[in-house]
Amino acid sequence: MLNLMNVVVSVGLMASGGTGFSQAQGFPALAKATLPAGTQLLDFTSEFIAMNRGTYQDDAVCVKPGVAGESFQGDFTFKTSTSAFKQVPAEGTGKMGGQTACVALGTASSTAATMHFSYWATTGRGMSPLAALPIFVGRDKTTANVPAAVTCQAGGFSFPMVVTLDATPFTDITIALKEDVDVTDAANPIDNSYGVTIDAASKAGLQFAVGNDEQVFGFECSATANATSLKYELTGTDAANFQLASATATITVKPALEDTAQPDQTVTVAMVADSSTAGSVTVEGACPGMGASMIYWEPASADAKAAATWADVQALWEKRQADEATHGADDEHWKHEQMCMVAVVAEGQKSTCAFESESRGAYNVTLYCRTIENWFYASAVTAVTAPDNGGVPVEMTLTYSKAIDTRADNAVILNVCGSMAEYLQVPYNRVQDEFGGSFGKPSPMVSGPAPKGEASAEASASAEASASAEASASASTRRLQEASASAEASASAEASASNSTANATVVQTEWKVSLFVQPDPRAAAVDSSTTVAALTADGALAAVNSVTSKTYGAPTVAAATVAEAAVAWDAKPTGASADKAITLSGSLTAAGYVYCGTQKARLLQSEEASASAEASASAEASGSAEASGSASASAEAPKEKEVEWDVMRAKVSADNLKFSLTLPGAEGASLDWMCIGTSLNPNPEVARFKTVEVTGQTSTNPKKSAPVTSGSEADSDSALMTSLFAAIIMMVAVFFY
């Protein structure tokens, strides 16, 4: 079939007594079409689609870049405009840096069984239209894969009867599990399902529809069961287009147990290295008998604990199913909990599942088993680390001859990140500024205050201690306070003059901006040297200049991979009190970053308490009943708040591994704090190495009391004033007399 559409076919047929002719005339060769500059060609991954009517086919229509080896250069959407077909979701989405974007496609039971052409519309900057897509609609029946045999334990359960479909129904079908009663002889019916109690949902029928193409059936067997079969029932809107793989399920009943005590068994689960990659980890374990198994996968957590009962496991499964419905196709599933269910239909069968992951990602995995004897087993929570794909971050250094500030001009820098992501054809969140922000998602650390002494923490700590000592040494009397203020003002002026002189002699001539390209976290293998080459090519500079050249000029460009060394605490962080703040300090064993934060809820509560105390004091001073009532209300216990952290970051270099961070707080507040160190990657989530987390509690300095004049000084002043007054009286008396 020629999709170039440059051929016209005509067919003629004589009514009788002659010969029919057909003609296919090729037009002259068409001129080679060219896309407008900056436009990316889009194409389908398949030349045509074949499907049966009355069904949806998952990932039936997939779009890819039209040039081999490319990734999508931007976000875009696509959807069909042909009424005979519907897609799920209603609008397909392609993401920057992706290589395919797929949707499910369906057609109703009434659609003609023939070839159709579906037409597609695309939206997105710099994306080409899509060609018409041929779709062959057939009338074959789609199979519902039901188990033909099942085993049940007398006095226990069947193993899970998992039913899947070759394609999802366009509207719905329902499959029910029913007793198999032979009524050939109406007077003497034969119950082939004697002793079986079918689950209520299985008996009523489980519905299959879009997004729900797998269901699990089950039943119990009494201690005296001698059932031999069950049967299936198929109904629903699209039932005419489906068929059952088997009309019945043969039952094997295992004899009742003489000893029902659960035997001790150790259940384990582990990663299967040979079939695991950075983006998909396969785990495997074995249950001690037939039944149901579930494997629970989650990002690593020190608080992870295995579920205690099968009911708890089922609750996890239901919660996971509900959560999954809230995650879109572009969601990062590898950062969430995942579960899989496997029916163990034979003794010794292993349960194997593959989970989405990321390179070097740390996870916990737990295997749960419920045997047909109704025995529950759980493995230990097992740590698993996804394989390393070899990717490392790459730092791109832009050196400008005009002033550009990483904080004040952060919006501009993030636009450069966006332009670089488009040039590299990677997702926006993989090109980051030095604070970990990306295009459209600035880092919260940018809006916060710059840490004092980020490069020289020791000097900062010394200066803060000195300032604190000076404040503590201030005199309590008014005369001494005035003298101190005068001295401090003089010192401040001298320091300012000194700094001005120093600044006058140092003229900054270049400003450096660092961008970081994070490696693909899910690719099987990554060669970061190709990123270095791309960042030093002419196209990279052009991408930067498209954003900054008019205001800041053209920078020089350098790029290199980032070497991340293992980090640990050389001196664990400790807290020190300061005025309206605490200072956290310590040191690492290698260059990296330190993140410290105070618990935001505790900080807010302290500020509220301080405000409450001031209101109370004001009320007492004024004697106002109304104010007193207000103060009393604000003094109520604060409500529970979700724990959040106000975080600051310090960068430590190889020649100075110490850090000091000053975090604000209300006067006299007791602040909960935490610190963690990472290797030299500005994104803490993907840093190759991390320290243990250190927590503590430190109070800010208490509020200083208002200065009070000493009693002796007051007496002295009073005596002096009395003497002067007496002298004046004497002088007046002499003058008049």
CATH topology of the largest domain: Alpha-Beta Plaits
Sheet-strand content, in percent, reads 25-35%
Number of domains: 5
Overall pLDDT confidence = 83
Summing up helix and strand content along with how strands pair, one would put the structural category as: alpha+beta
Q: Please identify the top-level CATH class of the largest domain.
A: Alpha Beta
Q: Could you describe the 3D structure shown?
A:
- The chain is of the alpha+beta class.
- It has 5 domains: 38-138, Immunoglobulin-like (Sandwich), CATH 2.60.40.10; 142-254, CalX-beta domain (Immunoglobulin-like, Sandwich); 269-326 and 340-385, Immunoglobulin-like (Sandwich); 389-460 and 509-558, 2-Layer Sandwich (Alpha-Beta Plaits); 569-621 and 638-699, Immunoglobulin-like (Sandwich).
- The chain contains 11 helices and 45 strands.
- The strands form 13 sheets. Strands 3, 5, 7, 9 and 16 form a 5-stranded antiparallel beta sheet that branches. Strands 14-26-24-17-21 form a 5-stranded mixed beta sheet.
- The longest helix has 28 residues, at 478-505.
- Residues 1-5, 453-502, 602-607, 611-641 and 712-737 have low confidence and may be disordered.
